Amino acid sequence: MKNKSKVGILLVITIFLFVGYNIIVRNQESLALSKYGSRGDEVKQIQTKLKNWGYYSGSVDGVYGSGTLAAVKKFQRKNGLTADGIAGTKTLQAMGIFSSSSSGSSSSNTNSSNLNLIARFVHAEARGEPYKGQVAVAAVILNRVRDSRFPNTVSGVVYQKGAFTCVADGQINLAPDATSKKAAQDAINGWDPTYGSLYYFNPNTATSKWIWSRPMTVVIGNHRFCK
Questions:
Q1: pLDDT confidence of 19, banded at 50, 70, 90?
Q2: In angstroms, rounded to a whole number, what is the distance separating the alpha carbons of residues 6 and 179?
Q3: pTM for the whole thing?
Q4: CA-CA distance, 152 to 147, in Å (whole number)?
Q5: Residue 2 has what pLDDT?
Q6: What pLDDT is recorded for position 24?
Q7: What digits encode the pLDDT tens for the residues 171-188?
Q8: Tens-digit pLDDT profile for residues 106-127
Q9: Cα distance between residue 201 and residue 147, in whole Å
Q10: H/E element, 200
Q11: How far is residue 67's CA from residue 51's CA, in Å, rounded to a whole number?
């Protein structure tokens, strides 16, 4: 009888461990929403976003192959995420594909604040520009944040004394429209049509000899972008 009891207990423990393991695996899989070998519409969304931002050059076919894997890793490194090639919750949030209703951390609040400020800046500085030009203006803010010659926060860059006319004339306080918000998000996600530019100006109105002396990278709409 004692041996049978021991066998029964061991069987129960084995079943418990097996069920627990499967729950953990399923939970991990639910967090790893798309990964190498995955197929479907979500993968197409990932590929489309990464292709628009210059991370991915393959076909938007919904197949999470080696090209998509490499592009996701590159995007993750650019955005300070773990570069494991898995498009889990945080990566998809950064891409603007998936948002968690339970997100309430100080990091999320900071990201939301930065997004709103950049969107207001885009609306104030470039609301009459083509969409690519609006993303480009947002990208300049982020490029400055990463450059040691400028403040290392979004608010620090935007409100740096004498940097932008939209702060001086109060237009920075205007409510951004949906396009400005989308442009800000695209820039945050890594799209930089300016190729790393730190400055921009309108050649039709600029009178500063210094700004004209800066090496030009690209012209988008009414703005000339430069380093």
A1: very low
A2: 67
A3: 0.59
A4: 8
A5: 54
A6: 39
A7: 999 999 999 999 999 999
A8: 455 557 889 999 999 999 999 9
A9: 19
A10: strand 199-201
A11: 11
The residues, any chain, with a CB within 8 Å of residue 166's CB and separated by 6 or more, are 121, 124, 125, 172
- The conformational region for residue 170 under phi > 0 = left, psi -120 to 50 = alpha, else beta, is left
- CA 209/CA 165 separation, integer angstroms: 17
Structure tokens belonging to residue 201: 């100006």
Distances (CA, A) of 33 to 82, 93, 96, 104, 141: 15, 11, 14, 21, 31
3-state SS, residue 141: helix
CA-nearest of 121, 222, 128 to 176 is 121
Q: How far apart are the first and last CA of the chain?
A: 83
Provide the CA 106 distance to its chain's centre, in angstroms: 17
Give the phi and the psi of residue 161 in degrees, each rounded to 5.
-55, 125
Contact 187, 193 (CB under 8 A): no
Distance CA 48, CA 13 (A): 47
Distance CA(77)–CA(68), nearest Å, equals 14
Q: Which residues pair with 218 in a beta bridge?
A: 225
Kindly write down the DSSP assignment for every residue of 33-54, as one continuous string.
Answer: -B-TT-BSHHHHHHHHHHHHTT
Cβ pair 152, 209 in contact under 8 A: no
CB contact set of 67 (below 8 Å; sequence gap of 6+)? 56, 57, 58
Q: Tell me: the pLDDT tens digits for 72-96?
A: 999 888 777 889 999 988 888 777 6
